[in-house]
């Protein structure tokens, strides 16, 4: 039976406003994690929408750059394409160029997925890294302080695509996932790991996301078709940061608030 989830949503007027909302949220969550546990372990996604958030966080003219406790932040990735780190399609490269090389975060606190390796090898090595850094064994799962997710127009999130093996993965922390739709391999955290995050949020922009966002929030439930429906955080809380275009199919009464999904 599906867990009932409380969803906190905020709707921005446009992409610029959305990048501000997202930067505010990420700063708030990282500051809270550092205050409580002395560090913040975050898992980031790629794509064009977080790119604008990263640029805002790194901007010397914005408050985020100085307010962020960079020395206490550990950066991981939700997923990666199976390409070298210098490749134009690398999630690591985008994050590095737009954020990490522009802020004072220690290089030894950045843990990329090795997309240049054979997919299964890269997945196994990243899982081993997580087990080592989080000091977990057996069936234990790492617990990230913040996990940032995107939503594809086909309903995928992370690199868990419709009708792929990762939809049905319960035991691994990280898997190599072949995506026939893209004729390519991806490395991804599994959805049970994502659901252990203390703060899990979707960053969603554009009219092409209106249908998958409606399916995520209103169903019907079919994770094989809409893998993003697998994201049901164990703590019962999920955050949606969206622009107006993405929420066009939802019946929301205000620009921010709470709703429930699942159950």
Strand order of the largest sheet: 3-2-5-8-9-1-10
Distance between the termini: 7 Å
Number of domains as seen in the coordinates: 1
Mean pLDDT: 96
Helical coverage, percent range:
25-40%
Instruction: Estimate what percentage of residues fall within beta strands.
Output: 15-25%
Task: For the structure shown, list the relevant keywords.
263 residues; alpha/beta; Rossmann fold; seven-stranded mixed β-sheet; three-stranded antiparallel β-sheet; 29% helix
Secondary-structure topology with pairs:
Layout: E1 5-12, H1 15-37, E2 40-44, H2 48-58, H3 64-67, E3 73-77, E4 79-81, H4 91-98, H5 119-134, E5 146-149, E6 174-179, E7 184-189, H6 191-194, E8 200-204, H7 210-218, E9 237-243, E10 256-261
Describe the structure.
The protein is an alpha/beta fold and 263 residues long. The chain is 29% helix and 21% strand. The strands form 2 sheets. Strands 3-2-5-8-9-1-10 form a 7-stranded mixed beta sheet, sandwiched between helices. A 3-stranded antiparallel beta sheet has the order 4-7-6. α1 crosses α2. The longest helix has 23 residues, at 15-37. It is globular and about 45 Å long.
